[in-house]
Automatic annotation (TrEMBL):
It comes from Candidatus Nomurabacteria bacterium RIFCSPLOWO2_01_FULL_39_17. Pathway: Cell wall biogenesis; peptidoglycan biosynthesis. PANTHER family: UDP-N-ACETYLENOLPYRUVOYLGLUCOSAMINE REDUCTASE (PTHR21071). Pfam families: FAD_binding_4 (PF01565), MurB_C (PF02873). SUPFAM superfamilies: FAD-binding/transporter-associated domain-like, Uridine diphospho-N-Acetylenolpyruvylglucosamine reductase, MurB, C-terminal domain. Its EC number is 1.3.1.98. This is UDP-N-acetylenolpyruvoylglucosamine reductase. GO terms for cellular component: cytosol. One of its GO terms (biological process) is cell division.
Amino acid sequence: MEILKNYGLAKLNTFGISARAKFFTEIHDENNLKELFILPEFKNNDKLFLGGGSNVLFTKDFNGIIVLNKLKGIKILEETPKYTLLRAMGGEIWHDLVSFAVSREYWGIENLSLIPGTVGAAPMQNIGAYGVELKETLENVEAYEIETGVKRIFKKEECDFGYRDSIFKNKLKGRYFISAITLKLNKTEKKNISYKVLREYLEKNKIEVRTSKDISDAIVQIRRSKLPDPAVIGNAGSFFKNVFLKSEKLKQLLEKYPKMPYFEEDGLIKIPAGWLIEQCGWKGKRVGNVGVHDKQALVLVNHGGATGEEMRNLAEQIINAVFTKFSLTLVPEVNLI
Ligand code: EPU
């Protein structure tokens, strides 16, 4: 296994930030993980496992080892008239898995089309979009314990999934390397068009949903119209999580801001962070090399040549502005390294 030194990370994070890592390696075969876990460069340093780099902000050089998950493969494990069990390796591109599923008319992950990143990163934060979350179709997660090199299979119930959250981000943070996931996808129609933006798009364009690909195509169009392409302008999708609050706080806010949008989700009230940021006047604003996207205020962008420090300063200014105006604290969805 080759361990590289002082490795440039600009191409490995979708913000396109030019940080460096003290050590760097790639994993192409899960049998090499045991060997990696006992190397001194690994054992004696901070570690960061990276997939598509679409949810990290390097605020400085990383003084440890970065391990890129390049495990590939998508396999049908079991097929019945009703469902398919699909196993995908962690280094696969998430959208490639969606394309694999919709091209075979499987239902369940079409609403998650075009989410940047890899399969291995998906359970970390229980990716979600357009009314669907990964946890709804996930069967299990395969992961290697760093300390022992032993593989463990986490059933869905053991993953503590929440809004953009899982056990891998909390209790087990930094302790496992996610090697594969298995999904249970439906073979009979099971569409979810509950999300307003999606429903409106389908109605407006007179699209009658017959296959999961019809939904996937619609989501791709919606996302392309709103979210910047990281290949063109550096970004990591939503920089912040949406805000959840209790009904008393909602009442107070609605008295002051009667037009504030809110949504009920799992018995909780969700306020779109994008709206809060927009109300503070930040949408479309630029400060030096960084800024807020003009079509979706939740997305921070690198206009070119930005440092991670600049991006973090912008995020802090936005957090302060939202707190001053609404007494609500925005929490980054992106991992600050
Ligand atoms: N809104 C504004 N101004 C903005 C952006 C949003 O007022 O600049 C308000 C509007 O009321 C709009 C509502 O927010 O109707 C919802 O906006 P949108 O449908 O764009 O969704 P979101 O809640 O802002 C979340 C996810 C996205 C995901 C979309 C679609 C989070 C943090 N973000 O955004 O995920 O694509 O829903 O389901 O939950 C990502 O995680 O990287 C990501 C892009």
